[in-house]
TrEMBL record:
Keyword Cytoplasm: yes
Cellular compartment(s): Cytoplasm
Keyword Cytoplasm in annotation: yes
Residue ranges with Polar residues bias: 1-12
Secretion signal span: none
Chain residue ranges for the region called Disordered: 1-23
Alphabetized UniProt keyword annotations: Cytoplasm, Disulfide bond
GO CC, any one term: mitochondrial intermembrane space
The family this protein is said to belong to: Belongs to the COX19 family.
GO biological process: mitochondrial respiratory chain complex IV assembly
Principal localisation: cytoplasm
The protein's name in its UniProt record: Cytochrome c oxidase assembly protein COX19
Amino acid sequence: MSTAMNFGSKTFQPRPPEKGSFPLDHLGECKAFKEKFMKCLRDNNFDNSMCRQKSKDYLECRMDRQLMAKEPLEKLGFKDLIDPLRNQAENNTKS
């Protein structure tokens, strides 16, 4: 005696994350940056505002190694940490 439990014809349609999926760092390419960030958090009672530079460095590592989509640092909330000379040099190469 087999009964099928069918509670309607609707099926769950999973949606991808808003920013898309990104691969895990299986090779540990950004592990040193992650460890510095995590140590900073522990040393500062998990106040992430004290570790923004290390967070930026970690995200840049992930973007540089294609472990996440490239995003402008301004869009990620790091506008105040961007080196103005480096930013100008990047803009000059785009022109």
